[in-house]
Amino acid sequence: MNEIKVGLLGLGTIGTGVAKLLMTNADLIAAKVGARITLKKIADLDITTDRGIALPADILTTNADEVLTDPEISVVIELIGGYEPAKRFVLKAIENGKHVVTANKALLALHGEEIYPAAARKGVEVLFEAAVGGGIPVISAIRGNMAANNFSTVFGILNGTCNYILTRMTKEGVDFADVLKKAQELGYAEADPTFDIEGVDTAHKLALLVSLCFGTRVTFSDIHTEGISSLSSVDIKFARDFGYKIKLLAIGKRDGDRVEARVHPTMIPVNNPLADVDGAFNAIRFTGDFIGPVMFYGRGAGMDPTASAVVGDIIEVSRNIVAGIGRRCAPLGYCDEAVATLPLKPMGEIESKYYIRFSAVDRPGVLARISGILGKYDISIESMVQSGRMAGEEVPIVIMTHEARESDVRTALDEIDTFDIITQKSQVIRIEDNLE
Q1: Which of 22, 262, 285, 325 has the fewest CB atoms nearer than 10 Å to its CB?
Q2: 3-state per-residue secondary structure call for 64-113
């Protein structure tokens, strides 16, 4: 039987899972590929820590060049994460004619426009199934079975840490800071959780999904990004009262010749399937012109699910090698010359329904002043709640609007927040009633 030799950069949690899977299911993989896939070299700065798997000492190295320049290695697996030296390593692997498999969504979201053309010039593959949704096979579905569809929307719950926090806040009525601390204790959140809770990780993944679905170049810096750190249990309760749940939602929409790409806390109806995605699970929902709405659901992170996706990409590349096929599919699923640069719809032009929570002193005329400014900017009120009336003290006033323009809402709130009756900055959450 033929042998395909691969090299691994990074022996952290996911790298360990990949090595374990390649060794544990080696016979099964060989039966499906028609060749035995062998880990020839593993490079990591730390090759002494026990990872719980038996690895031959001679395949471990601290020198990445032993992977990148070895002429026998056909596929390089990049699992070190981050921007550098990952970018340099990936480009060097490509320059040396090696296929690349990576889980590095941050690298591709920021530097894909440099990496993809380099791979095209050398005729090699860049595969990244594990970069979005962990073990959920969403990217291969977009590039494969659903490739004939024009996609109109893609929505995603793409960060397990945020979803775990919001699920606990919803079910237990606890505040953000308390749940975050518990998530860190349980290992669901990093010691520095900024990338997760501020939406950066989700935006990296959305950049890839929008590029794949709409055939356009979208980078991380193009995406409007908000996190969940400003949410309170009060907002969760009001959302429930109005028939919604709050999720950190990645939103991609095709709007004529433009694209929307944004990440922010969003109220979605409790009867929508995305509202039932709880805990550390992820989900991605698409709408195609022929397939209609489709949702993928599963574990979005963790050693085993992510390793499964990485090895799935290795198997795809290996099958091509066995068949004598080079670069069968471009990374974004479109021929390189067909990838467009569709303009992004400015955030100020977005139209949505809004939940707005004001913290105001309870005195006569407050509601009139607030509603007067909203009316001035053509923001129509659908419903309103004022609870806990205690004359002279702070009370929450919650307003649900009809569809309004983002720029008008922001201008109105900037004006209202200067009133002496407003005790803190207004809380705004966008509402998505139609997730088709």
Answers
A1: 325
A2: CHHHHCCCCEEEEEECCCCCCCHHHHHHHHHHCCCEEEECCHHHHHHHHH
Per-residue model confidence as pLDDT tens digits over 217-244: 888 888 999 999 999 999 999 999 999 9
Does 15 belong to an annotated binding site?
Answer: yes
**Model-level pTM?**
0.93
345 among known catalytic residues = no
Which ranges of 265-418 does DSSP label H, i.e. alpha helix?
Answer: 303-322, 366-376, 406-416
Task: Tell me the pLDDT tens digit for each residue of 78-109.
Answer: 999 999 999 999 999 999 999 999 999 999 99
| Residue among 40, 205, 253, 345 flagged as catalytic | 205
Q: Is 373 annotated as a binding residue?
A: no
Secondary structure (DSSP) of 375-402: HHTT--EEEEEE-S--TTSEEEEEEEES
CATH code for the domain defined by 347-431? 3.30.70.260
Cα–Cα distance, 96 to 4 (Å, whole number)? 16
2-135+303-334, which class in CATH? alpha beta
| CA neighbor of 47 nearest in space, from 5, 79, 10, 13 | 10
Task: Report d(CA 428, CA 60) in Å as an integer.
Answer: 51
180 labelled binding-site residue: no
Residue in the block written with tokens 């016979």: 27
